[in-house]
């Protein structure tokens, strides 16, 4: 499994996708919305609850896995073309 993570890390949309892959299942499990996070204490409490719940951790891990996986290629890695990229979008 070869994934060109160095190029993906240069793409801001990749980080948004990973953040949403982690945050969305946590908020959904606890029945919250982003608007419910009105203080650092509330956010900290939510993080502690999420990290201490194996089911929520598995939900977040599956979401991250889905965000990393490229559905246009067979298997779990990037295509040979994508592995050759040095910048996002293949502009070398």
Notes on the protein architecture:
The protein has 92 residues and is mainly α. The protein is 59% helix and 0% strand. The protein has 5 helices and no strands. Helix 2 runs antiparallel to helix 4 (54-68). The chain is elongated. The mean pLDDT is 90.
Question: In summary, what is this structure?
Answer:
This protein is mainly α and 92 residues long. The protein contains five helices and no strands.
Task: Give the SSE layout.
Layout: H1 5-9, H2 12-29, H3 40-51, H4 54-68, H5 80-83
**Global outline:** elongated
Assess the beta-strand content as a share of residues.
Answer: under 5%
Helical segment count: 5
Radius of gyration: 16 Å
Largest sheet: none
Indicate the mean pLDDT: 90
Residue share in helix: 55-70%
Can you write the helix and strand succession as a string? HHHHH
Structural class: mainly alpha
By DSSP, the count of extended strands is: 0
The first-to-last residue Cα distance is 23 Å
Low-confidence stretches: none
């Amino acid at each position: 499994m070869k994934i060109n993570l160095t190029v993906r890390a240069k793409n801001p949309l990749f980080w948004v996708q990973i953040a949403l892959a982690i945050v969305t299942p946590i908020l959904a499990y606890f029945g919250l919305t982003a608007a419910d996070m009105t203080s650092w204490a509330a956010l900290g409490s939510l993080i502690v609850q999420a990290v201490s719940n194996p089911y929520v951790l598995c939900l977040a891990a599956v979401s991250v896995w889905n965000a990393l996986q490229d559905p246009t290629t067979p298997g779990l890695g990037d295509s040979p073309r994508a592995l050759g990229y040095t910048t996002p979008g293949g502009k070398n």
